[in-house]
UniProtKB/TrEMBL annotation:
Protein's recorded name: AAA family ATPase
Matches recorded under PANTHER family: GENERAL SECRETION PATHWAY PROTEIN A-RELATED, PHOSPHORIBULOKINASE _ URIDINE KINASE FAMILY
Biological source species: Dehalobacterium formicoaceticum
SUPFAM superfamilies (alphabetical): P-loop containing nucleoside triphosphate hydrolases
All copies of domain ORC1/DEAH AAA+ ATPase, residue ranges: 35-164
InterPro entries hit by this protein: AAA_22, ExeA_AAA_ATPase_DNA-bind, P-loop_NTPase
Amino acid sequence: MMAQLSFLREIPTEGLLSLPQHREALARLKYIIASKGFGVMTGSPGMGKSSILRTLDASLDKSRFLFCYINDADLKPKNLYSKILYYLSVQPSTYLDRMKKQFRDAVVNLYDTHDRLPIIVIDNAQDLPIQTIKEIRYLLNFEIDAKSLLSLILVGHPELRDTLKLRSFEAVSQCITAHYRLSPLDEKQTYEYISHHLNLSQLKMLFPEDVVNRIHQFTSGIPRVINQICRHCLIDMESNQLELADHQVLERVLSEFQY
């Protein structure tokens, strides 16, 4: 009975359920790329931001775009340029001013020689240092002959959007082309989500509707938490040789998550 392919953190992108809010987020990110702009996607932890980024990456024409994914807890300006230069196959200098010139030259070369544009994605951007947020303005002002040669996407928790609204970052906030805040799943979507994941392991729906409603209530519709609860329910069912996740199964599992 155990669902080997269901409720995993990183299932293949083709196995992801296409929900309205995820389709909207993906559409906005693609618009940002098409317009060579600056975008922000926010959402609480576990809302599916990483899955959307993986889907975005998989959908890109690699002959036209270079996807640069950056996730660093200490992303000071030098670290930012160093990581971008790594994607651009350039050995970074130890001096920030020199790194900026390397960056400009490499992006121009990428465009002129290969007709490719970098897409710079910074994840967990709610933790960016102040000096790095201000540096974003100079990344965005990088233009040759009035043509922008890159797209920049910040991804993070809801407080990222609040931070960018601060007066000290007004110049950066004004440059935002599009922003999207991911919303949690409703009860119907939670049922659809669980059913979809079970289908990945060729299993029929093992969670009655009233149990799904309780799962939705407990998880607030956050996909990552739904995955955890359902996975533990399947383990409980396996150990107790049960065919359905009834309320007793669910309450045993929920008791492990309540501290």
